[in-house]
Amino acid sequence: AVSQRAKALRAEGREVIDLGAGEPDFGTPAAIIEAAKRALEENGQIGRSADAMIARLEAVVLPEQRDAVVDRIAARIEGQIAEGRREAVMKFGILNAELRAEPDLEAAYVWFSVGRAIGVIGAQERLDKVADALEPEALQAAQDKAVAVFDASAFARAQPSPTAEAPAAAPATP
């Protein structure tokens, strides 16, 4: 429903950041359905923050399955990034910073940096937090990689070139 609404708003010409999870290519595991039911019974709603999603993931996925689930989520987000979907950039940063069993802060920095470059709200705050956690050498490597990733992305091609010349002014009329 969320993705359909976002698509309808885009069709109207409005800028939309779609936070819907997309159409899964697999059925919802029974344990996740049960966790959602419990959440609804406990407080009338399912948590919407990244922290709530992480807690739910930890509650319903066996530790030995977590990496496989996160890898499947990552593959879906990478596809969204390849399509140039802006909201996927932050999802991928959060996945690397918070969902992985071993956080990949350099990868998170890269994607939060891309988010900042394309003007995604909240990217700068997350970027600063991750930068503070990285050692100087790792931070430099992440910054270099962020530039390369952005330059090769669909997002860079969508941005106006800083070296493009402005159109010539119209000649003055006498």
Short recap of the structure:
The chain has helices spanning 2-11, 30-43, 50-60, 63-82, 86-99, 105-117, 123-133, 136-152, 154-158. With 174 residues, it is mainly α.
- Name the shape in a single word: globular
Residue ranges: pLDDT <50 for 5 or more in a row?
Answer: 43-48, 161-174
Calculate Rg over CA atoms. Answer: 20 Å
What is the number of beta strands? Answer: 0
Helix/strand order: HHHHHHHHH
Percent of residues in beta strands: under 5%
What structural class do you assign from the helix and strand content? Answer: mainly alpha
Number of helical elements: 9
Mean pLDDT: 77
User: What's the story with the biggest beta sheet?
Assistant: none
Summarize the amount of helix as a percent range: 55-70%
Report how far apart the termini are. Answer: 59 Å
